[in-house]
Amino acid sequence: MEMSLLRKALEYKCWADRRTLNAVGALDPVQGGTSLAFARQQLNHMVRVEENFRARLQSKTIPHISTNTEVIPELQELDQRLTTSNEWLAIYAVGLQTIQIHQTLNFTFVDGLRGSMTPAEILFHIVNHGTYHRGAIGHALDLARAKRPADTYTVFIHALEPQRRDA
């Protein structure tokens, strides 16, 4: 995947995450309590995985020994952490040199299995991983009869570049 497309995918992820966080934040905590709890769990998992991969990209020790927790942080904390993660990823991707994107990084997953990926593969995984879990959150929003945001790449790119609708 060329770097400009990967950067655009990270921009899309940030946009889609924001739409999802806003929709989850609009849930009625009583009527949509089950969906809100599920969404928070999914967001917690997403951000913990991202924080671990960010540490790997920086050759640091991962901050989490699991990909979820028994006690789930409040939505405001998850929002802040996911926003921080998206900001870091965007800055990292811009500064990533061509020679670096294909360097293999070796690490251990939280389940103890060894793995190796390039920075480009890690960034792609983070985008893809977020898409998967936002889809699950979308289903929870449907179950709560809440507004589900349109968060596909096609909606994003046409909102970003409306002239494409006229092409």
Automatic annotation (TrEMBL):
Cited InterPro entries: DinB, DinB/YfiT-like
Family: Belongs to the DinB family.
Protein keywords: Metal-binding
Native organism: Iodobacter fluviatilis
Pfam short name (any one): DinB
Binding site for a divalent metal cation: H45, H129, H133
A molecular-function term among this protein's GO annotations: metal ion binding
Name recorded for this polypeptide: Damage-inducible protein DinB
Gene3D superfamilies in UniProt: dinb family like domain (1.20.120.450)
